[in-house]
Amino acid sequence: MNAATTRTALQVDDYLDLLNLAVKVGDMKWQKEIKSRLQYILCLETR
């Protein structure tokens, strides 16, 4: 695993933790922003 893959994996884990928190507090706007960022990261990885 190279440094870029490790960094991306950590980012995804961090965003998933934030998404879980956003769900717990019921913040729909925050959930949408986090999901958007995760989708962006996924697009970067598939290039």
Structure in words:
By secondary structure, the protein is an all-alpha fold. 87% of the residues lie in helices and 0% in strands. The mean pLDDT is 88.
Please name the defining characteristics of this protein.
mainly alpha, 2 helices, 47 residues
Secondary structure elements and their pairing?
Layout: H1 3-25, H2 28-45
Helix pairs in contact: 1-2
Give a quick precis of the structure:
With 47 residues, this protein is mainly α. It has helices at 3-25, 28-45. It contains 2 helices and no strands.
Main structural class: mainly alpha
Q: How would you describe the shape?
A: elongated
Quickly count the helices: 2
Radius of gyration: 12 Å
Counted beta strands? 0
Low-pLDDT ranges: none
The major pleated sheet works out as: none
- Approximately how much helix is present in the residues? over 70%
Arithmetic mean pLDDT: 88
From N to C, what is the helix and strand string?
HH
**CA(first)-CA(last) distance:** 17 Å
Q: What amount of the residues lies in strands? A: under 5%
